[in-house]
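Two quick folds needed for the group meeting slides. Do the first one here.
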Amino acid sequence: MVSKFDYYFPAAAQMRRIHLYLPDDYGESTERYPVLYMFDGHNLYFNEDATYGKALGLKDFLDHWHKKLLVVGIECSSDDVQRLHEYCPFHIYSRIYGEVWGRGDTTLRWVTEDLKPFIDRTYRTWPQREATAIAGYSNGGMLALYSVLRYNAVFSKAAVISPSLLPAMECFKEEIQNGSFSPDTRIFFSWGTAEDSPEYVYHLSESICYLEARLLEKQIQTYLYCQQDGQHNEGSWELQVPTWMQFLWF
């Protein structure tokens, strides 16, 4: 089942809708559950909530999956520029939006210092890092990667789906080079061959492979998934869900 409630996001001085997935038998059990935090929460479960009318199908998958967990879907700003600022953790230059002074680290501090403690107090969770994951796609994928690197003491695993990495590559190189990570960290990367122009896809795949090589040097476990004919949309990303969920929650 999916519960929706509003939670205050001080960086934007706004309430943000949380789309919380709970196993159907949550109310009848005393079990504790691992937790997945995920960006673009309105696009996860129901087509009628999704920005473009197509959700990720995550509820249908979890309802029939053999493992049970909570998913905290965090809704973003409805403004594309503000969404990028909230999800980008660096100062970068975007080919579409120009100069971006990202507030992604502010977003993550809110998630880790405010929202996560509230979830752990209110619901039966396993709060330790080994039972805590994060995921996102596009700009949310960029922030999911930053999350598991910079906040590795909180998140032990991440799904980085079709991430908007190219403008932030130098920043991520520094994050990996200077960071210290637990060897049980698991990171899933994906991209689609039809996301954009062939040149863009080539540079994205090369960048992901480069980052993966540096992560392997840091003893991090990785999984690369190139989706043939995969596009930059929820319809394509839905097909990846079983693969990255199984890798994260092996």
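Then this one, please, same format:
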Amino acid sequence: MKLRVWRNLVIDLLLTGAALVLFALFHHVLPRQQESIGIVIPNPNASVVEETVTGRVENMELLAAGPTSGIVSDTGISLLAKGGSRNSTRQNKSGSGSSSKGGSALTEETEETSETETESTVSMAEKFQEMYTDGIEQNDQSYKSPNVSVTVTEHTTDDGSVTYYVADIYLKDITSFQTAMANNTYGSGYRDEISDMARIGNALVAVNGDYYGNTSEGVVIRNGVIYRANPTNCDVCVLYYDGTMKVMPGSSFTVEDAISDGAWQAWTFGPALLDGNGEAIEQFSSTSRIISANPRTAIGYYEPGHYCMVVVDGRGASDGMTLPELSQLFEDMGCKAAYNLDGGNSSIMVWKDEVVNDPSGGGRASSDAVLICEVN
């Protein structure tokens, strides 16, 4: 009798385990397309807008649209110059909450990290003319053209414990700030190497994105298309057609605002790395594992037309950075807003077809990437 009970129990456990494995494979491993909202956000700078914003929100039309690719001249840049940096001070402060991702670092008093009301009315195309050139000029660490300026540098903290890479970016047109999806498909289980997505997208520089395909939560806007807008407790970062960038709690995001304000890209991971005054954040509502020193990928915003990408090596010769350290780095760099993307083994920077950092564990494929491209 006891033997039969134990046998039935073992069988039940095996069947349950098999069911869980199949569930995990279907939802997280096996590639499958996901249903998309599919709303194309009109570019307010375009000469013709056929539909009103109100009509788009009310009808929630499912429009056929996919990620776009830029066009870049076929030139080669590969090497980096080493730069100076700051002191590295370890901190590991956490708030009361937690999240499987970055949680939210914003308070009710500073719900957004942007300064659009005080920004200059000078357009992106006019503001940084001195950063561009009539033709293409390049060297080991920079690329300049009539539309794009990118400089990539390698840095080491003063104590030598951390290595990180900074791409300083100026753009005349925000459509040069692109994103790519693995297999050019919106869904879960699709993964490509960042270097492959960079090459297919003709990217000058590329980093990993928020690994949107690993969850069904949050906001996914890619190249002006709203694919997903599910509730999330994580901070959301939105880049708009006018070049401004906002970081807000997930509860503050609405599809209506995204359309009316002209959202171009949006990511869900986080947390925000600067408060509404562009100052470092010390308390993060995340788990200690997330807050502790890790490889990192993040994007920063100075003003419309001026951005940066940062990748931090970790879990090897370089120690990685805690979230407070990464936050302090972006304050020291003078950014007004900064946002943490997927990290760990995902943290990869590609500069003209070469991986320039030392990814943890050799790196891993991802569902999406952030690209800087030349576009027509």
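Slide caption for protein two: The longest helix spans residues 2-29.
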